[in-house]
Write a structure and sequence with these properties.
By secondary structure, the chain is an alpha+beta fold. It folds into four domains: about 70 residues; about 90 residues, 2-Layer Sandwich (Beta-Lactamase); about 70 residues, Helix Hairpins (Orthogonal Bundle), CATH 1.10.287.130; about 150 residues, Histidine kinase-like ATPase, C-terminal domain (Heat Shock Protein 90), CATH 3.30.565. Helices cover about 55% and strands about 15% of the residues. The chain contains eleven helices and twelve strands.
Length: about 450
């Protein structure tokens, strides 16, 4: 029994010890758990602070990158990112800076090339306009803008800017058929003719080039008229000569008086042809680019007096009197031989219309830097509608009178070229019933130096 009691007491003691041990362990665990909880809280707070700081730092850098991208997109090639070399974004920022440098350099070169191309196209004599595939104006140079005016603007349909059907047809052909189209436009500008070349562009649209061929057209027309006029002037005397020669040949017993009359007519027509040939050669000479003058200082009075003396004997047989109003002693630059031709042609022209006035007047006066010469007749005068055209080749105010007097219609054209080759001007003033005055100028050999006015 004692042994059982001892065993029970021993078990109770062991149980007490175990409870005490478990209690101690529980208290220790609670302390550890409490410490761990605080450590976790502190760690979480620190992590939150670090995360917030990192987030704010990244957000600021990302805002800088966004601002940089916006400035570059707007064309500000000077935009750059500040790199500290410590963050993970430093390499990205450096790469973006290098990209901006390269893009800025390439854009500058592109702008320089575009500006150079624009200057080159603006300096061209031809008009150039680029058209989009939709038919609107993409770009045009200064010449095209001068021709078409303010209506020609980028983004505006070409059909609303120009009204020339041939130009629009060429553009339409280049856009639709993708082939070079050539045409002529005569309605873009008054009095101007343009050759149109419309070529398709590889990227779509078309490039139109307009070349002004007005002068070429005028030259071709003038050449056609010249050939026609020469043919007409030669055909008339040739037909007359042929007719009279055939009559003489076919008449087995020609009347001597008739023969003499016919031979006189033949001689007159042959002389007319010879005169035409001489004037044609003279005109070809003065119109040639190789035409040279032997310019020397000559006194205006000497030029006028020499012409007066030379022509007095020729004019004397016509019943017309030559008179002079004098000339200044100033020296002019002139070719004496060419000036004899000028005075001779102008006097011959005046003789055709001076019969009613019976006199021709020579004169000259000093101007600021030139001497103005005048040859005046006192005949019927010239109507105003003829004044602007009398210096044209083969133009005649009175065709019947001119042909009757043996005129070729080239004399005044020759005079005009000679005077202009001297650096002078020539014009005509006339009033019906009061004769006509032909004026031309020659530059002074030494223009007078303006003297300082006294104070």
């Amino acid at each position: 029994m004692t042994r059982n009691l001892f065993a029970k007491l021993l078990g109770l003691f062991v149980a007490l010890v175990a409870v005490q041990a478990l209690t101690a362990v529980a208290l220790e665990y609670s302390a550890v758990q409490h410490a761990s909880l605080w450590a976790a809280i502190v760690a979480a707070v620190l992590a939150a602070i670090v995360a917030a700081w990192v987030s704010m730092s990244l957000s600021g850098r990302l805002k800088q990158v966004a601002g940089f991208a916006r400035r570059v997109a707007e064309g500000d090639w000077s935009a750059r990112l500040e790199t500290d070399g410590e963050t993970g974004l430093a390499a990205v920022e450096a790469a973006l800076n290098r990209t901006a440098d390269r893009l800025g350099h390439e854009f500058t070169e592109l702008e320089s090339s575009r500006h150079t191309l624009a200057v080159m196209l603006d300096s061209m004599q031809e008009a150039v306009v680029a058209i989009t595939p939709e038919g609107t104006v993409r770009w045009s140079n200064a010449v095209m803008q001068r021709i078409a005016g303010a209506l020609l603007a980028p983004g505006r349909p070409l059909v609303h800017s120009v009204r020339d059907p041939e130009l629009l047809a060429c553009v339409r052909g280049a856009l639709e058929r993708k082939e070079l189209c050539v045409g002529r436009a005569s309605l873009l500008a008054p009095g101007r003719v343009y050759e149109v070349n419309a070529a398709p562009l590889p990227s779509g649209g078309a490039l139109v080039v307009l070349h002004d061929v007005t002068s070429i057209e005028a030259a071709q027309k003038s050449r056609r008229e010249f050939v026609a006029n020469v043919s007409h002037e030669l055909r008339t005397p040739l037909t007359s000569i042929q007719g009279y020669v055939e009559t003489l040949i076919e008449d087995p017993n020609p009347n001597p008086e008739t023969t003499r009359e016919f031979l006189g007519i033949i001689l007159k027509n042959a002389s007319r042809m010879n005169r035409l040939t001489v004037d044609l050669l003279a005109l070809a000479g003065v119109e040639s680019p190789d035409y040279k003058l032997s310019l020397q200082p000559v006194r205006a009075s000497m030029l006028l007096n020499d012409a007066f003396d030379y022509l007095s004997g020729i004019v004397g047989d016509s019943g017309v009197t030559l008179q002079t109003t004098g000339a200044p002693d100033a020296q002019v630059m002139a070719d004496s031989y060419a000036m004899h031709q000028v005075f001779g042609n102008l006097t011959e022209n005046a003789l055709k219309y001076a019969q009613s006035g019976k006199r021709i007047s020579f004169g000259a006066r000093l101007l600021a830097s030139e001497v103005q010469f005048t040859i005046q007749d006192f005949g019927p005068g010239i109507a105003s509608e003829h004044i602007e055209r009398i210096f044209e080749r083969f133009y005649r105010v009175d065709k019947a009178r001119s042909r009757e007097s043996g005129g070729t219609g080239l004399g005044l054209a020759i005079v005009k070229h000679i005077v202009q080759a001297h650096g002078g001007r020539i014009w005509c003033e006339s009033e019906l019933g009061h004769g006509a005055s032909f004026h031309f100028t020659l530059p002074l050999a030494q223009p007078p130096v303006a003297r300082p006015t006294a104070a």
